[in-house]
Amino acid sequence: MNERIRCFARAMKQQVKALYLASHDPRTPIAAKCLVVMVVAYALSPIDLIPDFIPVIGLLDDLLLLPLGIYWAIQLIPQAVWAESLHKASENNVSIPRNRFVGALIISIWLLGIIGLGWWVLLNYL
After folding, report:
1. Which pLDDT tens digit goes with each residue over 66-122?
2. What are all long-range contacts of 19-22, with beta carbons under 8 Å and residues at least 24 apart?
3. Which of 85, 111, 119, 125 could form a disulfide with 21 if both were Cys (CB 3.0 to 4.6 A apart)?
4. Read out DSSP for 80-92?
């Protein structure tokens, strides 16, 4: 069981790298690129919808949302582009660039979403 989980995690990591490569391909449609940016940002984001320190439920969003986002993104990417990207991701040791600006941007987006949700609740329910 433990080995299956490790294989699943490795496959998801490989697919996130392939999504990153596919997002830079000019043959990838704009809708797919937007979804890929959201999926990769969520995969790399230090902030989850449900924090990981909450037992069981904390990991549930990673086990459901990330694979679902990967699946939808793959469906929008042309098969030839996906096959090439997956091959490149498995062949090379692709590293997704990390920088502080992108991290700050992701955190800002999450904060704006929380503030917007709070504002909406305030206007509609209080």
Report:
1. 888 899 999 999 999 999 999 988 887 766 666 667 667 777 877 888 899 899 999
2. 19/70, 19/73, 19/74, 19/77, 19/85, 20/89, 20/94, 20/96, 21/85, 21/88, 21/89, 21/94, 22/77, 22/81, 22/82, 22/85
3. 85
4. HHHHHHHHHHHHS
| Amino acid, res. 10 | R
How many residues belong to the chain? 126
CA dist., res. 84 & res. 59, Å (int): 31
Lookup: tokens for 9: 């995690």
**Reduced to 3 states, what is the DSSP secondary structure of residue 78?**
coil
> Which of 124, 116, 112 has the alpha carbon at shortest distance from 47?
112
